[in-house]
Prior knowledge:
Blueprint: H1 3-16, E1 19-24, H2 29-34, E2 37-39, H3 41-50, E3 55-59, H4 62-71, E4 76-78, H5 94-103, E5 108-112, H6 117-121, E6 125-127, H7 132-138, E7 143-147, H8 150-159, E8 164-167, H9 173-176, H10 180-189, E9 194-197, H11 203-207, E10 211-212, H12 215-224, E11 229-233, H13 238-245, E12 250-253, H14 268-277, H15 286-300
Parallel strand pairs: 1-2, 1-3, 3-4, 5-6, 5-7, 7-8, 9-10, 9-11, 11-12
Helix pairs in contact: 1-14, 3-4, 4-15, 12-13
Amino acid sequence: MEKEKIIEQIKKLKKEKKAIILAHNYQIGEIQDIADFVGDSLELSKKAAGVSCRIIVFCGVRFMAETAKILSPEKKVLLPKKEAGCPLADMIKAEEARELKQMYPDAEIVAYVNTNAEVKAESDICCTSANAVEVARKIKVEKIIFVPDKNLASYVAKNLPEKRIIPFQGYCYVHDKIKKEDIAKAKENHPDAKVIVHPECRPEVIEIADMVASTGGMIRFAKESPAKKFIIGTEEGIIHRLKKENPEKEFFPIFPLPVCKDMKLTTLEDVYLALKEERYEIEIEESIRKKAKKALDRMLQ
Ligand code: 13P
Ligand code: SF4
């Protein structure tokens, strides 16, 4: 089917089936363009919890669609590409989270939203890259087990010297491979550009940035800043939205280009088939979902 036809069919099916399409900021441009809402993990989970519809088609990766299902069990949540996962989320198993709790019984466990439902269920509270520091600050105890991203854990620790952060040693391969030298090179080419990076980047990369933010925070910063040029230290998909919403400004990616393979799997055809066949439905065992919801609700409060 031609692209225009597919888009027409998606719009028609969406209406017929009372569905909405949520897309993460890293999705390919044409998916972002047909979505009802594009955002970061926190914005998308809030949207999923608050929106009224029968079906949510989640264009992103599995943990994001799972989060939507945990918060809105009465809705049918579809992940158009069932293979779309997050290698960072897969680095920690529920068993390992349980072991950490046994090792540090006086600590609370904070799970980055980039975790599977079983790990969230073992956690006291969730966080996203947009609120990690705030969530950790509000925890009453001094000791915090932070899973699974070691770079985000280090960013939280740096901002909260009064807390003792015990990090799990996971990392996002896309952000962890951005080197200080890659940023320096981009700065050489665009000396008057502001450097914005994601907190999943290495500490030495974060140190030389002008701004550290979630993908949603990056969108806001680019819009509100008087600067005209920006070097973007995160997955390249976000540049589509940055350019679209700020046509008078310039955005430069880092090289080698940071690409999340899983975020790039979903195509327009997959979205069409997801709507048509109501596939691939996210299912979570109820006892796990309830426990995971507690950790998510605590974060949203
Ligand atoms: P955001 O919550 O900042 O959109 O990040 C999600 C993610 O997967 C980063 O790699
Ligand atoms: Fe996971 Fe990294 Fe891809 Fe984000 S960019 S979905 S953390 S692998």
